[in-house]
Amino acid sequence: xxxxxxxxxxxxxxxxxxxxxxxxxxxxxxxxxxxxxxxxxxxxxxxxxxxxxxxxxxxxxxxxxxxxxxxxxxxxxxxxxxxxxxxxxxxxxxxxxxxxxxxxxxxxxxxxxxxxxxxxxxxxxxxxxxxxxxxxxxxxxx
Length: 142
Known about the structure:
Layout: E1 3-10, E2 22-23, E3 29-33, E4 39-43, E5 52-53, E6 58-59, E7 66-76, E8 79-82, E9 89-93, E10 105-106, E11 111-112, H1 122-125, E12 127-129, E13 132-135, E14 138-140
Antiparallel strand pairs: 1-2, 1-7, 3-4, 5-6, 7-8, 7-9, 10-11, 12-13, 13-14
């Protein structure tokens, strides 16, 4: 039975499907033999555990979104086969905006995290409606 591992890289950092990959730090996978139906792989991947793209020699900022290319590789006694194809699987990792390093405000009951990991120009993306201006999911009343 093969073993499986998750491999990832910052999207666009590899020149080809074969280069620039990192092994996931926290992605326990289970391989199941389904007989004639083949094998299946299951598990979870904690993307927050990935703090450095060693292949690209880049630290990942945990306060900013990052798009990751992802593949699963199966290692057999005869070699390794990965799921990479011309259209890569991708995961967008976004910060959750709660914790000791992000600002929060009390909102009964609970908290609100006003942290936005990106900025946008309200005038360029705003649309007028009878009730105010909408932009990127944020409502600005006049």
